[in-house]
Amino acid sequence: MILPIVAYGHPILRKVATDINKDYPQLDKLIEDMWETMYGSNGVGLAAPQINRDIRLFVIDSAQIFENMDDQDRAEETYPDDPGTKQVFINAQIIEEQGDDWAYNEGCLSIPKIREDIYRAEEVTIEFLDEHFVKHTKTYNGITARIILHEYDHIEGKLFIDHISPLKRKLIKRKLDDIAKGNIRVDYKMMFPK
């Protein structure tokens, strides 16, 4: 089932999410719905707070970026994380961020039609449980690391716009206010703050 995406301005997006255990009600169905919602919204990652759940759960699929990349993009740059990763992250905790910060133009399903260059670390080492509650500690890099860091921010109550300068945030304030008021059209279901 495709769930509505929580829009900027909703308080759940600023809340630090809580850990869950394997007895969380209908977790398999929730994860299935999150995949369906993410793909239905043309996203590459989705965190539980974005569907109005304050739990430490997110899903990512960087493989679709590589699948949709044209030959010219592939020829211009090498991607250390090619062919990408599809993964469920439960109760994730970042162990370490490594490498140089690099810029990439990010967007967010909860903040539609706004994109900004965001600097993030090249690599992230993260400890998490998968959908079977098997514990992993893995290091990711490239675009996959960026998506993980973006979604991890969501479970920490942060948004990608928190990484831009106050001046840039001031310049997009009207657009952010329009999103919070529901004065925006997107081709996926959204839940606006009341």
Automatic annotation (TrEMBL):
Fe cation binds at residues 108, 150, 154. It catalyses: N-terminal N-formyl-L-methionyl-[peptide] + H2O = N-terminal L-methionyl-[peptide] + formate. GO terms for biological process: translation. The active site is at residue 151. NCBIfam families: pept_deformyl, PRK00150.1-3. Removes the formyl group from the N-terminal Met of newly synthesized proteins. Requires at least a dipeptide for an efficient rate of reaction. N-terminal L-methionine is a prerequisite for activity but the enzyme has broad specificity at other positions. This is Peptide deformylase. It comes from Flavisolibacter tropicus.
